[in-house]
Design goal:
Blueprint: H1 5-13, H2 19-29, H3 32-45, H4 56-68, E1 72-75, H5 83-87, E2 94-99, E3 108-113, H6 119-134, E4 138-141, H7 147-156, E5 161-165, H8 178-187, E6 189-192, H9 204-215, E7 218-222, H10 229-239, E8 243-247, H11 257-264, E9 268-269, H12 273-289, H13 305-314, E10 320-321, H14 322-329, H15 333-345, E11 349-352, E12 356-359
Parallel strand pairs: 3-4, 3-7, 4-5, 5-6, 7-8, 8-9
Antiparallel strand pairs: 1-2, 2-6, 10-12, 11-12
Helix pairs in contact: 1-3, 1-4, 2-3, 3-15, 6-7, 6-12, 7-8, 9-10, 13-14, 13-15
């Protein structure tokens, strides 16, 4: 069966098919059409019913709207999909992009920080981004107020930038950044994971943050309050094996608490573009060498009823690492992943951050 863009998008837009499930289904069944046909069988094995497949008409309308906007899809496994982003377990199966997609595979540095940033922080972010872009790095940020805005403006002054948004590709947010967002799409690269017309919601921002961290060899935080979205991005960068860097600030300023804490916990203290470039060079080299295959790891294998019983018996409402399930069940990795896939499609499993799962 042909593995068309429409079939892949239908699979991605089907309820219950997350990034981890998607990247297991495609290698196992060869293409999206075959994976869609297999969903009822997999769900039955998991003890439930398959979710209704995304409507073909709705997917066709989404694709037409994307084309009208001058955007296109970038699927996991495509040759121009970022190799670094493809490394992360929950890499987006599909991105909607406008601009130069080659920028996503260039040496990237994320600059993030407070929305209510001080004038000094915005100036530093602008100057740092300007210097990094001048030296050939691509600056990635989230087009939010404050530090993000300053970073994009600084990078555009001497080079290019990538903006990752939590809304549809056609929605400017915040409203005052509509013109800047258009400049990023025209002179750099604009990336959205949500379909066109999607207004940003609070739940979308952590997903956006993982893309920012995943694209980048390192993340620089400039002013961040405790429990802020910027610290989530930094935490994700660390989990992905990327460099975490922070700009120190006054202990009298609450906006500096997050950065100072990161430095105390081992993040690299940054005072200049040279500091940043020194840290990201090893990961840059890895990105250049790594082909963006997107589907690393053993494909799922068929599981027996005894395999299912062994894995299900270890699951509960408290999230547990998949590696722990593999160890305690004494089953092959591919078999455990098959059982988890079946349970998820049956609506009996929930996936959590950090490769953890729990029963529903």
């Amino acid at each position: 069966m042909a593995d068309t863009a429409a079939a892949r998008l239908r699979l991605i837009r089907t309820q219950g098919i997350g990034p981890v499930t998607y990247r297991q289904l495609i290698p196992r069944f060869g293409d999206a059409e075959a994976a869609l046909d297999a969903l009822p069988m997999l769900a039955r094995r998991g003890g439930g019913r398959a979710p209704p497949v995304a409507d073909a008409g709705a997917v066709a309308r989404e694709m037409a709207a994307t084309e009208r906007l001058g955007a296109r899809y970038l699927f996991l496994g495509d040759p121009d999909y970022s190799a670094l982003l493809a490394e992360i377990e929950n890499a987006p199966p599909a991105l909607i992009v406008r601009g130069d997609v080659a920028l996503a595979s260039a040496p990237c540095v994320a600059i993030v920080g407070a929305r209510n940033a001080s004038a000094a922080a915005c100036r530093f972010a602008r100057e740092l981004a300007h210097a990094l872009a001048r030296d050939g790095a691509t600056v990635v940020s989230g087009l939010a107020r404050g530090v993000d805005t300053a970073a994009h403006v600084g990078a555009l002054g001497s080079g290019t930038t990538v903006g990752v948004i939590a809304s549809g590709i056609d929605i400017g947010f915040p409203p005052e950044n509509r013109d800047l967002q258009e400049r990023v799409a025209t002179a750099g690269l604009l990336i959205a994971e949500q379909p066109p017309g999607t207004e940003p919601r609070a739940r979308h921002f952590p997903y956006r943050n993982r893309i920012i961290a995943g694209l980048s060899a390192g993340t620089v935080v400039i002013e961040a309050a405790p429990k802020s979205g910027s610290l989530i991005t930094a935490r994700l960068a660390g989990e992905f094996g990327r460099e975490v860097m922070a700009v120190p600030g006054s202990p009298l300023d609450p906006r500096a608490q997050g950065c100072n804490s990161l430095i105390r916990e081992g993040a690299t203290l940054v005072q200049s573009a040279a500091d940043v470039l020194e840290q990201i060079r090893p990961i840059d080299a890895r990105a250049v060498r790594s082909p963006p295959g997107g589907f690393a790891g053993p494909p799922p294998e068929d599981a027996s009823d005894r395999d299912r019983d062994a894995v299900v018996a270890l699951l509960g409402p408290v999230p547990v690492p998949v590696d722990e399930l593999i160890r305690q069940s004494a089953r092959p990795t591919a078999v455990v992943h098959t059982v988890l896939l079946e349970l998820e499609l049956a609506g009996r499993l929930e996936r959590h951050a950090g490769g953890r799962v729990s029963s529903l």
